[in-house]
Amino acid sequence: MAKKVLIIGAGGVSQVATLKCAMLPEVFGEITLASRTESKCKAIAARANRPIKTAQVDADDARQVAELIRAEKPDLVMNIALPYQDLPIMDACLETGVDYLDTANYEPRETAKFEYSWQWAYRERFAAKGICALLGSGFDPGATNVFTAWMAKHLFDEIETIDIVDVNGGNHGKAFATNFNPEINIREVSAKCRHWEGLYGKDGKFVETDPMSMHKSFECPDGVGTYEIYRMYHEEMESLVQNFPTIKRAQFWMSFSPSYLNHLQVLKDVGMTRIDPIVYNGVEIVPLQFLKAVLPEPSTLGSTTKGKTCIGVIAEGTKDGKRKRAYVYQVCDHEESFREVGSQAISYTTGVPAMIGAKMVLEGKWRKPGVWNMENFDPDPFMDDLNKYGLPWKVQDPTEY
């Protein structure tokens, strides 16, 4: 029986998730798309293959979100808004007794620090209410968590190290632009790097280093190319090292072009990446939020972006007493993504897993009371749906790096 969903957020990822949900009426019966700016929702709805309801809501206000939930009566709320809004939307779901899903973990506006502790604190309350929260149902986090769980189930007895590698081999033709929300992107890449170091059987810890202080060359498979990747912190490591305690080292790597890094350094040097408010002409503004307003909107980059993404997990460990190494990855073409849903591959690779995660919850395959990360569930049905709905994946031993 088809279910009802409420999708909150109207950016590039939401566009992909909404349009992909609309393509599966047997799962997603009625779809309501809501955002602070309803006109953005209407623009997305106009692209769909069937009618989609739209609404206006301030996702910072749990009361408003709860009122909308009561009016629409969804079976699931898909939060594809900003990370700052995770907790108000979770509060609204608790108040109304409705399941919850998001694509990125909570981050307070005033501090560039993102971690799961704030959302994991909801575990007992969601369980007591009998509702499910699925956290991080994007690609990274999201599919990369599921890749790790799939390898743990099928390829390894024990996983000892993981390297999550996110390469965007695309070119949007702009002097400087970010491929997703500029404010979130710049906060993320400017933050201190943390990676996991632990000893088998003993507690490990996250080791902090300066942002972008470690980098190396990485050759992607399938002809995507060779790129410089930089070590940085990403939230999926936090849950993976808890759920797979044999992991001794976990690292996350992302590719950046020299031009991007040069522009970012200049912006940082002149104070434009600051997140603390300043007063200009008697008005309080946040420099990074002002910068976001003048940079290209990521959802407009689809028509000009060419190339491919390559995102995957390299794992090392043991199987049947022997050392083993494996690489599960996915390659996505920017131009093919745009032809299908009008968005570039960065939005596509996040929006499709959001739809699949929602499908897993609505079908009951991944639904149980509490607050959960992606790797807490059986990876097989999700991996099957990646192949079915636009993100086919492969397994191989990686090129040495």
Please give a quick description of this structure.
The chain is an alpha/beta fold and 401 residues long. The chain has 14 helices and 18 strands. 49% of the residues are buried.
How would you describe this structure to a colleague?
With 401 residues, the chain is α/β, with parallel strands linked by helices. The protein is 34% helix and 27% strand. Helix 13 (345-362) packs across helix 14 (380-388).
CATH superfamily of the largest domain: Dihydrodipicolinate Reductase, domain 2
N-end to C-end Cα span: 48 Å
The fraction of residues in strands falls at: 25-35%
Helix share of residues?
25-40%
Q: What keywords describe this structure?
A:
14 helices, seven-stranded parallel sheet, 401 residues, Rossmann fold, Dihydrodipicolinate Reductase, domain 2, alpha/beta, single chain, globular
Write the SSE topology:
Layout (H helix, E strand, L loop, with lengths): L2 E6 L3 H11 L5 E8 L2 H8 L7 E4 L5 H11 L3 E4 L6 H11 L2 E4 L14 H4 L2 H7 L2 E4 L7 H12 L3 E11 L13 H9 L2 E5 L7 E5 L5 E6 L4 E8 L3 H8 L5 E7 L2 H12 L8 E3 L2 E3 L1 H8 L13 E12 L2 E12 H8 L3 H18 L7 E4 L6 H9 L4 E4 L5
Parallel strand pairs: 1-2, 1-4, 2-3, 4-5, 5-6, 6-17, 7-12
Antiparallel strand pairs: 7-15, 8-9, 8-12, 10-11, 11-12, 13-14, 15-16, 16-18
Helix pairs in contact: 1-13, 3-4, 13-14
